Automatic annotation (TrEMBL):
SUPFAM superfamilies per the UniProt record, alphabetical: DNA/RNA polymerases
Name used for this protein in its record: Reverse transcriptase/retrotransposon-derived protein RNase H-like domain-containing protein
Organism: Cajanus cajan
Lineage of source species: Eukaryota, Viridiplantae, Streptophyta, Embryophyta, Tracheophyta
InterPro entries found in the cross-reference section: DNA/RNA_pol_sf, Retrovirus_Pol_polyprotein, Rev_trsase/Diguanyl_cyclase, RT_RNaseH_2
Record domain Reverse transcriptase/retrotransposon-derived protein RNase H-like: where: 15-62
UniProt keyword terms in alphabetical order: Multifunctional enzyme
Highest taxon in the source lineage: Eukaryota
């Protein structure tokens, strides 16, 4: 059961074991070092950008 289900309109809030596992996995992924690999030039690239009054962020992903 994903955490995004909790963001839907009229969705009742229930913290079940599956959601706890999803939350723990999300925390682990956000607090561990990223795995960097060489980009494959034959595959398409995705650029993600976001800006605010405090700063900006960008990512190049494949």
């Amino acid at each position: 059961m994903s955490l995004t289900q909790l963001t839907k309109k009229d969705q009742s809030f229930g913290w079940k074991d599956a959601r706890e596992a999803s939350f723990q996995e999300l925390k682990r992924n956000l607090t561990s070092s990223p795995i960097l690999v060489l980009l494959d030039p034959s595959e398409p690239f995705d650029v993600f950008c976001d800006v605010s009054y405090q700063g900006l962020g960008c990512g190049l992903m494949q």
